[in-house]
Amino acid sequence: MKKMRFLAICVIAVLATMNVKAQFATGADIVSSYVWRGIPQGNGVTPNIQPSVSFTTGAFSVGSWASTSFTGDVKEVDLYATYAISSKFALTLTDYNYNLLSTPNYFDYAKGHVFEGTLAYTGAKFSASLNTMFAGNDKLANGDNAFSTYYELGYQVSPLAKLFLGGSLANSTTYGTTGFGVTNIGIKVSKSIVITDKFSLPVYGILGANPYSKGAFFVAGVTL
User: Fold this and answer.
1) Per-residue pLDDT of the chain (224 residues; tens, 9 = 90+)
2) d(CA 130, CA 188)
3) Are 206 and 188 in contact (CB under 8 A)?
C-alpha cells in the first residue's frame, strides 16, 4: 500500500503543477438492474442508482463511480485514475470496493478492495480493452492471487448502437470461469427523448448474454 500512496502523491503533484484548464463533471444513471461484465450484481433484479464524479486536467482524469441498489443488497464505491496516452489509447488504474456490506470497514484493503489496471483503445468504430486485477481480494480457491483478466471488444454499428463481446482469459472466481470464456456479449442501443426544446433525457437499453454461465439479461437505463 506504500507504493499506492506514493503513486497517488505523484499524480496529485503532477496535477498541481500543470498549467492547463481543469474541469469537474458529475452525473448519475438509474438502471433496472446492475450487470457488470456479464455478471449480475446483488440479486440481479433490483434497480440501482449509479452516481459518478470526475476531475480532468490535461491528459489526466481522476474520479469515483458508485452503485447502490434500491433494496440495499448492493453497495459499491470505486475510485479510478486515467491517463490518456493519445486520442485513442488510455491507461486506467481502478480501486474497486464492492464488498461494503460484508466488509463495512472501507480501509480494510485486503478484504474489501480489488485493484485493476486497464489498457483501452477507442477508435472511430472499433474499441478494445484489456483489464487485469493485480492486487486485493481477487483470489483463487488456494488463496493465491488470481490475476483475473477481462477482455472486451466493441463495434459501433451506428451512432446509437454498439455491439460488444468480452470475457475472462483464465481461471477466475470473479468471473466464474475455469479457463478462457465469453461472459458478456450483446448490444447497447441509446436514444435521447426530447422533453422540451432545451432538455433531452438520454436513455439506453442493453440486451446481452453470458454464454459461459448460460444466462441472459436486459438492462434499461436513464442518464441524469
Assistant:
1) 554 555 555 555 555 545 557 899 999 999 999 999 999 998 888 999 999 999 999 999 999 999 999 998 889 999 999 999 999 999 999 999 986 667 677 887 777 899 999 999 999 999 999 999 999 989 988 889 999 999 999 999 999 999 999 999 999 999 999 999 999 999 999 999 998 888 899 999 999 999 999 999 999 999 99
2) 20
3) yes
Provide φ and ψ at 159, rounded to 5°. -60, -20
* H/E stretch holding 83: strand 75-84
Count of all residues that appear for the chain in the document? 224
Distance of CA 215 to CAs 62, 185, 209, Å? Answer: 34, 11, 6
The domains of the chain, with CATH numbers, are 2-223 (2.40.160.40)
- Looking at residue 198, the DSSP 8-state letter turns out to be T
Q: Which residue in 67, 49, 47, 74 sits closest to 224, CA to CA? A: 49
The model's pTM is 0.86
Contact 70, 47 (CB under 8 A): yes
Give yes or no for a contact between 68 and 52, defined as CB atoms under 8 angstroms apart: no
